Amino acid sequence: QVQLVESGGGLVQAGGSLRLSCAASGSIVSISTMAWYRQAPGNQRDLVATISSGGSTNYVDSVKGRFTISRDNAKNAAYLQMNSLKPEDTAVYYCNAWITGSTKNPYWGQGTQVTVSS
Fold first, then answer.
1. What are the tens digits of pLDDT across the range 45-77?
2. Percent of the chain scoring above 90 in pLDDT
3. Which residue, among 43, 16, 37, has the nearest Cα to 97 in the 3D structure?
């Protein structure tokens, strides 16, 4: 079994920063792509950023220049540094991972709430 656990969400004022963490545990040989998604109330779950095992990153246009995704392969962890937060960034943020060799991909965390007040 593989589990993803997110942490680091909370309430912050507009312009502030938060750092989300995602820790993967269980039967893991290696992790290929890791990603962060978010879902605001009444909306679908949308991709925010991805990072490959080699460190290549991609971002949705709305967060470019403000968010930074990173990972620590030795710890099976991913992070999302969020700066210059805006009220429209308010959502539940989910970690996503593709585990090498698993037939149950993709894996999802339980989500962490990020609320940005104006």
1. 999 999 999 999 999 999 999 999 999 999 999
2. 96
3. 37
Q: C-alpha 45: how far from its chain's center?
A: 12
Whole-number percent of the chain with pLDDT over 70? 100
CA angle 64, 66, 71 (to 5 degrees): 85
Distance, first Cα to last Cα, the chain? 40
**Long-range contacts, 54-57 (Cβ 8 Å, 24+):** none
DSSP characters for 33-84? Answer: EEEEEEE-TTS--EEEEEE-TT--EEE-GGGTTTEEEEEEGGGTEEEEEE-S
Residue 110 region, left (φ>0) first, then alpha (ψ -120 to 50), else beta? alpha
* Paired residues of 20 in beta bridges: 80
The token pair that represents 62 in the structure block: 């709305």
